[in-house]
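Please go through this protein, sequence plus structure tokens, and consider how the sequence yields the tokens. Keep your notes short.
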Amino acid sequence: MNSDQYGNDARVAPGAKMDDGVFDLVSVPRVGVFSACGMLYRLGTDSFDQVKAVTRLHGANFVIERSKPGWIHTDGEPRATTARLEVALKPQSLRIMVPAPRD
């Protein structure tokens, strides 16, 4: 995650900041319906990362190795990936165009 939420105030990484130079990696395993209901509640109370099943790490680089290829979410966008995924932060690499100020 580059920010604290997916949107609609669903705070997956409470306290995460877009300009702190690190990613907030949040890993959520498959859970049953009962556990999922508790996690949904936590999304709206800034306490999602306190769920025992959730793992949260901070860093500028990650290597994720899984037993097989599959789907992940990157900032809320689903995508298929290989079993090994390397993630590196590139500071100040996002260029944004904004309109000129009006007089």
Summary: The first strand starts at residue 23 and ends at 27. The two ends are 37 Å apart (CA to CA).
